[in-house]
User: Fold these one by one.
Assistant:
Number 1:
Amino acid sequence: MLQALPVLALVAVGVFILLEMAEGDAVDAYLAGIGSGDAGFAADLRERYGLEGNIGTRFLTYAIRLAQLDLGHSVAFSRDVGAVILERLPNTLLMMVSAILLSASMGILLGGIAALRRGGPTDAAITVGALILNATPGFWLGLLAIILFAVKLRWLPIGGISTLDADLSLFGELLDVAWHLVLPVFTLALTYLALYVRLMRGAMIETDASGWVLAARARGLPASRIALRHIARPALLPVVTMIGLQSGALLGGSIVIETVFSIPGLGALAFEAVLQRDLQLLAGILLTGTVLVVAVNVVIDLLYRLLDPRVRLDAGLDS
Amino acid sequence: MTDSAAYEANPIAGDGAVLKVTDLRVRFPAPGRGSSPVTAVSNLSLSVDEGQVLSLIGESGSGKSATLLAIAALLPAGTALEGDMRLSGRDGNLLVPGSRRRGIAGRHISMVFQNPGASLNPVLSVGSQIDEVAAAHRGLVPAEARGITEELLDRVGLPHSGPQAKNWARAYPHQLSGGQKQRIAIAAALAGNPRVLLADEPTTALDATVQAQILDLLLELVDERSIAMIFVTHDLALAASIGDRIAVMRTGRLIEVGSAGEIARRPQKTYTGELMRTALSFTRSASAPPAVQKPGRETTKEGLLLRSIHRSFPARGGGRVQALSGVTLKIGSGEIVGLIGESGSGKTTLGRITVGLEKAESGEVILDGSPFDPRGQRATVQMVFQDPLASFNPRRAIKEALVHPLRRHLGLTGRSARARIEELLDEVGLDPALGSRQPNQLSGGQLQRAAIARALAARPRFVVCDEAVASLDVSVRAQILELLERLRADEGLGILMISHDLGVVKSIADRTVVLFNGREVESGPTGQVLKSPREGYTRKLIAAVPSGLVPWRERLQDEAVG
């Protein structure tokens, strides 16, 4: 788990280099926006935002700030980057975690069913369905879902994270947010579903051919027990690994989905930051994303330790 | 057990039979379009009595495994089964698919497999894998069966109380040795109190001394619980020792059935006789092959010398395991040196150090008096590995695998390389036309010949064979050993023969070195080491090998008395 720290440091350096390579800074964008070009005013602003000096001093300012968990100042929002991000983070986090859980659990379930019925019509339907979803761009799927469920059927809201003018109890508010998240979370989860379906199906077919499954049949265990404990359980391992690997891609995918469903999350924020050349904000978002992905992977590592006794630290047998 | 004449007269035994199979026919679906179904077993009839062991023997492809899996109802769907199978006390033909089979597996017929590691689920504790079987056959939930599990573990030699006690039930398969895992698998197979136990080469993957312990355990259980056991093996000596009766299979048919003593001493069929001869080469006092060495060569510098080799590896949970501590060994030109020892003795590491695949921590490898340089002299010392399929690139034809050493070490390309490949394949007794096949299109024996051809391609003076014949059938094994012997005689090849099989070493090696825990415990001329061993460990190793002529049960009794 300690590997997480060097990863974060490396990403921080990488983000700095990327920002340095980009031409123009937030002050340029700001001045262009207000239409004035006083050199003294610009220098003043640059000093305030830590944008002046050579690359060495700039990096030092950046590193010291980061160490104090200060992500800098957002020119576009005239507020601390940390505060802006914290405001948006819960929405993205909620969407991302629900989408991961939904796509992985649906994938495990459908992939498992497909593997147990392999070669039959159920298997074909699941495999082909997942493949079609996989080939469909997320934004298009999202738009279709909006047209069908929000516009035609009017079952679900068209976008946003909550009903703006509603006066609700705490429970009502939670329900309201959940209701708003149904379409975006399903859209996000479905686009990544195929991966888990195929992985689980493949892993189960492989375990099905293993010696311990044959042995379990020879010992006369009920078919359901063999399917769950001896086929599905060991097959979970590659799927869980994939959840960690995919969390980054899922975060990327959420930018598109947040835009389609106008959800005020990190994705939408990143888009604004790019448009406004608010590089400090962008850097903050990138770093937050890294922390998220690293955190998911730490959780996955812990989960893996639970699932696979072979990676547990204890070596010997207790006497 | 007395040899009943009735068995010879009528292989399908009388009323005492627990399991009776009549005219079994197993056909696998056609492997491809236009081909016809493959008949794996035909007209097979056999039976086993309570407390009796029937050894079922044959080479790979003889149908012995298919027979066992048919009895256990474990053949894949789509396999056509014909014939009649009955369990005493139960109605109906069990080969008829459907409800008649329900409740048979585990409760009446159970099975132990060849690879104990593969037959246990790696992510579940071994105790829970016995619990669930005990529970399933008693209508309990698994948690209630722990008491039964602990009794079983106790019985198979993994006690949870007493001086040797460990919490075995909570262990995971990866924490156990091969022998311990096989004990667990036996406990799980017996958790439903079956009357028939099918054992599919249950000791083939184990070391000789561990094999002896497992055989002891199986026979004790057969006697105690009056189990009828069918013991499948390719090793005729083992079959003859452990079985009350032997059934010999070839190409899907039973060619000979009889009492073990009869078949071992007076086989009726030529094929059985051949098998017996090869299998018993260890027990027979075959004269050791004459060494080709010229007198005085021992004193020259010529040869491959390993001097006080040390090597250790990082251990699980910290620390280091000493794999080799100061082993010295010499292979002269035209000399075959046998290296025997159980797994973990360091023999494979020594082989890898000899060819330069692994580095010694201290000690040196000396070739003709000067240090061996694995980079520059790779061609001089070559290696043949145990698993021929794993040692070939699956996507390349055999020819392509042979081209590489020819080009690299001899500078042969184009037509001259092709000609040399044909020569090499011919030399190892392989039809040169097979050179264009992919590795998976050859049999194990053919592929091992190709591996030897590849090792010879660079014109080496020394070859290390690491269990090179272990995975081969006895008849193929004999051919490969003959080939090695010819190469030694004709080309003065020096061979280091690493094997856990004393029979192999006995039949081919001039000198034998016995390794135990990374140390040489004994070495000398093969005949002397194997016939009159000086060290206790060597004697133990030799005693663990089934002789084929003495029933294993007598050995059990001897032990009990002694």
Number 2:
Amino acid sequence: MDDFIAARSQMALSLGFHIVFACIGMIMPFFMAVSHYKYLKTGNTTYRNITKAWSKGVAIFFATGAVSGTMLSFELGLLWPRFMLHAGPIFGMPFSLEGTAFFIEAIALGFYLYGWDRFNKWFHWITGVIVGVSGLASGILVVAANAWMNSPAGFDYADGRYLNIDPIAAMFNKAWFSQSLHMIIAAVAATGFAVAGVHALMVLRKKNVAFHTKAFRIAAVFACVAALLQPISGDHSAKDVAKRQPAKLAAMEAHFNTQTSAPLILGGLPDEKTGTVKYALEIPGGLSFLAHGNFKAEVTGLNAIQVQNRPPVAITHFAFQMMVGLGMFMCLVAVLYFIAIWKKRSWLQQGWLLKLFVICVPLGYLAVEAGWTVTEVGRQPWIMYGIMRTRDAVTPMPGVAYTFYVFTSIYLSLSLIVVFLLYRQVKMVPFLYDKP
Amino acid sequence: MLYVVMAFLWASILLYVIMGGADFGAGILEFFSTPNSKPKTQKILYEAIGPVWEANHMWLIIAIVILFVGFPSIYTTMSIYMHIPLAIMLIGIIARGTAFTFRHYDAVHDSMQRVYSKIFMYASVLTPFFLGIIAGGAVAGTIDTSANSYVSAYIFSWLGFFPVSVGFFTIAICGFMAAIFIIGETDNAGDKKRFTDKAKHFIIGALVLAVVVFIAAMVDGVPLSHWLFGNPISIACMSLAGVSLIWLWILLSRESTGPLRTIAGAQVTLLLVAITYEHYPVLINLKNAKGLSLIDAQGGPKTIMSLGIALLAGSGFILPFLYYLLYSFTNYERE
């Protein structure tokens, strides 16, 4: 394996692994806080049991997320030293703030997990909320750093030198808001659907129905609200990308030729050599409207981008379509759920609605992975958009392929163990929480 | 502000050595426990470090973030030439943290527990060993930025008698600090006695390995004695550390509950002061080239300014909260 491809694969794998754990560690604390609040207000012990059961999941995910995050902070240098040499002082601000947020999260989690019946009950509850808030802050900050790679700001670049560095301006780059917002909503939706789906499955199997129904409802509301908000944020992101990174937008949409009234291409097989898309469904003027809010507007195509500056089209296009498709499906489930709550209470008793949630368990995370693929692959060949190429940033050390193999096996085994642990947690619910 | 940032870097390295070191030491103690005492050791250690272990390891993140934001050329030089030991250390950190958490949170207690324990113990020994190698390699002047072969650039940058001996010494120090820490966490006289003996063994081990480190320094041509005894401050630190070690030994022999932790913490601090004083402001020594100094490697003025403010503000949140966590879950108030 080529060292450059190995380095990119290792980075992709590490990020792809970490993002799942980061989402859960960031969002689950809010579910816990709601359930915990209900327990404190109503005294219903089922809510306490749900909170405790969830907190065990959070402990497992947080620990895995914390170590894979530690790994990433080193990997940036291990794999991309020439990037970090210049980028570190510019986009480091969000990382130094994130260090604080992450530290506070770890401390608060210690209080929360081990603090049952030890502290004032509201102090204990608040520590749980702090876990969530600081996790959320970490997420926003890290995504702001990534946004800087898409939209470099806070320095002047001249003759290969990086001058007048302003880390605050770098942090508040043009992409930070749209990217962070999209990620946070995605994290809520993905985690919400995953948690709701697991509990829905247990309700369908008629196991501890009272416990799982209450748990399902908390997670489902979070998931569905987020799923409905996401298209709005997605639209904002797409318009933003159209302005800042026309090459990425063109690759996402497999839009090869600059034209007015550009059609929106659904599905299809893009062929980069001939610049055509086979077997696609085209909506006339759709892309112009989505990118610029006008059915007639001109949309920059890949032909306007120099060949050596074009991102891979097929991967970006497939990943984008997958993300949007999955998002739409979750949106539909959310609509049905809200109809059920407000108009058709009888649906809640019927299996099909719960089954839809079970199907959604992995979908949110698949959409998150697909979305990151769009962001990262769509930025290629740049590591710092328009300034530094990814190939120029890679470590000079040969043999990265071997570390890639080692870390692949580690991440694979960790994923298997985590799934195994969750399976055991869920299986043990009747024994742990059903004591008369 | 540069000095504030440097102070934070120094403090986070120190705190990582103390808190993270004692944390690694917990696994090292488990490693060196007899099969009979292992379950009990595990239980006491779990109660002591369970709530705080994640916070203990944050100091490493703080240090690394300070390096890559404030002193990028130092971070990237380390990343390139220490790639292999850093990767192994990361594997250790991943394996250790997850095994420790999984062991506790696995809903079913069966033979998997033994697997988690094994991974936890081995990773607890491996990780500080490689941390020691990295630290040793960074100061030994073995990094050769003009090397033209794979082996001399990426292997002999860290694989040498001196770095490896520092690795072993680090294991002993971690075990020593965990043993001292844990004495105060138990009320059972038998356990206290066992951990006191362990602490003494680790002190003897550390002293023997310190001698090995000095021999290795001489063999590899590392001016270690000059760093430790070449100026009045370092000499004073080393003498204080020596005297306090005797004091600690007497306290341990009398099984008295003196300020054991404070002494052990002070010793590590003195050692770090002694070694960094002569080095300052150089962080990494290179082969056939000028060492990388914190002053030369600093990022732009706005970067250092905002980093310093972020660190000052952050510590305002972190330190009281962290203190209360440690106060609540460990027995610091007993000293």
